[in-house]
Amino acid sequence: MVTGGFRTKSGMNSALGNGVTNLIGIGRPMTLDLDAPNRLLSGAVEKLDCVELELKLDDRDAESEMPEETKAFINKLGPGLWFQYQVMQIRRDRGPDRHMRKKRGMTGLQENDLKAANELEWPPE
Ligand SMILES: Cc1cc2nc3c(=O)[nH]c(=O)nc-3n(C[C@H](O)[C@H](O)[C@H](O)COP(=O)(O)O)c2cc1C
Q: What does 88-111 look like in DSSP terms, one character per residue?
């Protein structure tokens, strides 16, 4: 099994056809479209969206007073959190939200964790 970056039906068929792999995993696109494999198999689409390429702070955040190191940190680690946020949306039956504000999706989970951590008794009794 191979996973990571497969987005086109032709690319997948080529990897399967030449014996590189016998099973392909699809990760990030499925957080936005649980039906993605079926749509590829049926021929409804040839290529899945590459949303990961767009996951950078929006201009208004990139131009904000936020320290440059913080912006770089969010742009590096945030995309993974953005996809986790989509999974939470699905789990809560809200469905994925691909238009979610980038900064919110890339930092929201950390802010929630921080809030929860602040409410914990520490050190524990
Ligand atoms: C929300 C999310 C959760 C993931 N959780 C795991 C995990 O628990 N263990 C793991 O080995 N990979 C995990 N992955 C990585 C995927 O299995 C996959 O290897 C990776 O996303 C690259 O494939 P892609 O380009 O199709 O996204 C996760 C990916 C996403 C988007």
A: HHHHTTS---TTS-HHHHHHHHHH
